[in-house]
Design a protein that fits this description.
Length: about 270
Amino acid sequence: MEMEDKIESQRQRQEDDNGFISERTGSLGCLGWFIVILSGFFTVLLFPITICYCLKIVQEYERAVIFRLGRIIDKKPKGPGIFFILPCTDSLVKVDLRIISFDIPPQEILTKDSVTVSVDGVVYFRVSDPIASVANVTNANYSTRLLAQTTLRNVLGTKNLAEVLSDREGIAHSMQSNLDEATDNWGIKVERVEIKDVKLPHQLQRAMAAEAEAAREARAKVIAAEGEMNASRALKEASLVIAESPSALQLRYLQTLSTIAAERCLSCFYLRL
């Protein structure tokens, strides 16, 4: 039991050292409370002057994280609405809860089959925990942008060119899972990731176009050969039927003569016109 208690206390100490304080708050102490009371006294004494500094308004899509003498007060952010703060001891950080989108700049990536491609995308995310987004990371927006670029490189580095061109949805889903897991401690929720464009080198584009053209030509030749084979089979069957019945040959001969006569009459009619 003593060993388990030591391990638990060591783990708790490591978490405190890492700075992940999404919901934990500390006491201000005697000196802190004395400063807070003194600040409140001067605020009330100079109320007509300090009203502009004490009154804060937070919009419906925002939350306010309040620091009092360097510590986060309460266990949840303030807002939306109107509230008061002490101007000397309290500082306020507003956090936008709306979905934010940003473009991933084109990244030169070497695929698994050693092909260099340029890929860009777009990421949609929002702040799910305002306190963690302020206390656990310096700039959640900027950090998420950098992480999205590196994640795009890491994910596409495990794919070959054919998978990059055909499985964009799977790549986007994999990126979203990796980003969402990495930004969970930052209070960030990644809603959606999309791959916008995949640019290939010009030489590779010409080679792929030539390959596709050759494949189409080969497929056309195969189709033409199959047509010739089917036509020869039909002629063979027709010759067997005619050979079995001489009267059928005579009827076919008369039908051919009538067709030729009709064509001659039609040509003479057009010549007279």
